[in-house]
Structure formats: structure tokens, C-alpha cells
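Input (Band 4.1-like protein 5):
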Amino acid sequence: MLSFLRRTLGRRSMRKHAERERLREAQRAATHIPAAGDAKSIITCRVSLLDGTDVSVDLPKKAKGQELFDQIMYHLDLIESDYFGLRFMDSAQVAHWLDGTKSIKKQVKIGSPYCLHLRVKFYSSEPNNLREELTRYLFVLQLKQDILSGKLECPFDTAVQLAAYNLQAELGDYDLAEHSPELVSEFRFVPIQTEEMELAIFEKWKEYRPKITRLDFKKNKLTLVVVEDDDQGKEQEHTFVFRLDHPKACKHLWKCAVEHHAFFRLRGPVQKSSHRSGFIRLGSRFRYSGKTEYQTTKTNKARRSTSFERRPSKRYSRRTLQMKASTTKPEDLG
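Output:
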């Protein structure tokens, strides 16, 4: 009788301990997706996402890999899910992809909680085939991780350009009054990031500033006016003139340029109006009437949500530069 009571109470104690551990693990994750049932019938999986956050998912004890994968895809509202997979490490630290047709417990031997990572499993052979902005964003996060970890080797010039694109996307246009070369050292892009590379990234970032203010044509001459900031932060206007063989060819080139500008730069097509438009009017009544890239990404397919959170990159302590960068402080402009 005493032996029976000890076994019974021991099992109850173990179940309570498992339940406490499961709840404690769920609380450590940023998001917890619960499941019905007690600790004995449930397993907990902790999935690290590409933005650095964690999701804790409770599932039936005999759940297969596909059930966990579907939960994560639903949580992210990720439509183009075929490019992604869940990866785990075995006891020998060898990475494996979770098989959707097999039990989670039979594949991931260490747990519960069973720790997995959401990763890009298949890189698109043509990035333009990725229709969803969220998918493209996750691809960028994966590439950043692979380059930073050294898994993906990147030549110096390519790394500088990609890092400059990252700064442009995260911080916007370079601002002389706000941004200094030391700012780049707060980010990590490659395993060995030297001061020389940071200065090169800074200089490349400064180049991503020109804005088209005028585009028109007359007969066989097309005029393009671009404004950008110089090294002192003052706007400089550059005019480019293209002469074509025939007025029809000139008008055709102008229409193509207007369409590309409207598609990539505007949130919606320019509405017709009685007054002249500084950019679109310009020698013709032609207006781009199709959807813009912004509209396409927002209305491409019905979704439960229309936006997702972009998380900033991890920031590090700022470097004190020993090399000089070609920049001028605002107080030196006077």
C-alpha cells in the first residue's frame, strides 16, 4: 500500500513539475500558443524566429512536424511557406530539417521543450518571383545571419554595398547633421568588420540620395533633372540631356521612365487634374494608370493582416575612429 502511494504521489509530483517547467518555458518566449490538455498529454516546442524572437507552442504528445510548422506559419501569417523549414540540432550538433510526416518526439531527441529554428530552406532562384514583402524581409534576415556568421562568404565590395543598403532601409537617407561615420560601428555585417570597411560602407550609403525632380521631352530631346546633397549637405542639381534619333522614340522612352518612376516610387498612380503636374505633365497627357509596387504588395492576396513588424538590428558599442572620413560637420559649414 505504501509502495502504491509513493508511486502515485511520485507520478503526480512529476506531472506537476513538468507542468511548471512547461509554463516557465512558455513565459520565457515572447509568444505562447497553448493547447488543451494536461502536462502528460502535451509537449512544448520553442521556435526561434529569424527576427530573434521566440514562439512557444504546445502540441499533443504525438504531434507530427507538419502540425508545428503550420502553427508557426499561421502565427507569422506567412503565405509563401514552401521556402521555409524548421531546423533542429541532434546530440552531435548536426543540423536536420524537421520532417512534417514524422512525430516531433521521434526526431528531436532533446526536450521537452524541443528547440527548433525557423530558417530559409530553399533560396529562390529568381528573387523577383517572391511576391510577398514579408517573404522578402525574412530572406534578408536569413542572408544577414549567414553573412555575419561566416556561413556565406561575401567579397569586400559586395559586403559594403549590401551593408549600405541595410543602413538605407533601416535609417533612411543619409543626413549630414545626424549621421557620422562612427554610426556604422553600431551595426554588425560581417564576422571581421574593420574600420576601413565601416568607412567604405558609410561612403557608399551617402551615395544613395539622388531624387528625380523633373523628366520631360521636346521633339527628340529628353531632359532628366536629379537633385542630391553634396558633401557639405547642400542640394546640387544635375541635368542630363538625352538626344534620340526620332521624336517618337523620345516620347516612348519618356513614357517608360514615367511608368517606372510611378510604379517604384509612388504609393498610387497620379490622378488626373486640371493643373500641370511638376513631374508627370511634361509634354504629354499620358498618365500611368496601373497599380504601383506598393499597391501590388498590399493587395496581392487576401491576408489576415496587412503589415508586420520590422525589428531593428542589434546595436553594439560605437567605435572611436582613428581614420578620417570625407565628411564635414554642420558647424564647419558657416
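Helices lie at 2-28, 65-76, 104-107, 133-149, 156-171, 195-206, 247-265, 293-299.
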